[in-house]
Design brief:
This protein has 283 residues and is of the alpha/beta class. 38% of the residues lie in helices and 19% in strands. The protein contains ten helices and nine strands. The radius of gyration is 19 Å and the shape is globular. The N and C termini lie far apart (45 Å).
């Protein structure tokens, strides 16, 4: 029978459980999630398991990173299924605090990240997002005090923001990025894919195809601005409302104009129906 992970909901209980692990000199890895777990999350768990003796997965749908017009109320919540998946993945601890535990009455301190958080990508369309992410992730880091924290590359700007935050605040942990997990047709796995209609799901892989083709053209030496313009046109013709398609420096997220400007990451965000999808690839 699969062993159920220890499910903890209060900070004192979490600290007691982790104190025993640390007394036994176990390395601790944290995988922060908002639940509604899929194979992409489980890839993060496997990456954590390869690097640490104790794996902690947090499940917390963070209200501070949702704008008033976004999907906090309807964001998928499947706690029982998530626990079953994490048990099968041999996760040791599930940290599942309530909103009241994370943001108790009188909570008044928030992080305001700059730098890569103000790159003009996700922040241009979700201006409060990275403040919410940075605050909740910093709290998770301080609650769990992990040696390693694992994030997916699908949310690439978020990965860069969290990495910079940990560096700037001298937090004693290592951030590990894990490659995006995809469906066979290239669609990046996301909890929000559940919102897609059958017709939208059939169209959705276009984003990844455009990214791949754009990356190939840039590697061949074609003009980046022309490649991006052609990719944007293809996405629009495919039924998407494009938020952005950008070529950026892979570490700083600064705009680039040629391959000589540094390692390149292509990033895209677009809406189809009521669903907003993001993706990225390295050039």
């Amino acid at each position: 029978m699969t062993k159920r992970p220890l499910i903890l909901r209060t900070i004192p209980a979490l600290r007691r459980a982790l104190a025993g692990r640390r007394k036994a000199r176990q390395t601790v890895a944290l995988v922060p999630t908002m639940g509604a777990l899929h194979e992409g999350h489980l890839a993060l768990v496997r990456a954590a398991r390869r690097r640490a003796r104790c794996v902690v997965v947090s499940i917390f749908v963070n209200p501070t990173q949702f704008a008033p017009n976004e999907d906090f109320a309807t964001y998928p919540r499947r706690f029982a299924a998530d626990i079953a998946a994490l048990a099968a993945a041999k996760v040791d601890i599930v940290w599942a605090p309530s909103v009241e535990v994370m943001y108790p009455q009188g909570f008044a301190t928030r992080l305001v990240p700059e730098g890569v958080a103000l790159a003009g990508l996700e922040d241009r369309f979700r201006p409060h997002f990275f403040g919410g992410v940075a605050t909740v992730v910093a709290k998770l880091f301080m609650q769990v005090n992990p040696d390693i924290a694992v994030f997916g590359e699908k949310d690439y700007q978020q990965l860069r923001v969290v990495t910079q935050m940990a560096k700037d605040l001298d937090l004693p942990l290592r951030i590990v990025g894990v490659a995006t997990v995809r469906e066979k047709d290239g669609l990046a796995l996301s909890s929000r894919n559940a919102y897609l209609s059958a017709e939208e799901r059939a169209a959705a892989p276009l984003l990844h195809r455009v990214l791949q083709e754009s990356a190939r053209r840039i590697r061949r030496g074609e003009d980046i601005a022309q490649v991006i313009a052609a990719g944007a046109a293809a996405i629009g013709a495919g039924g998407f409302a494009l938020d952005y398609l950008e070529a950026r420096h892979a570490r700083t997220l600064a705009p680039i104009v040629s391959v000589q400007d540094g390692p390149i990451r292509l990033l895209v965000a677009a809406r189809i129906g009521r669903t907003r999808l993001i993706d990225n690839v390295a050039v």
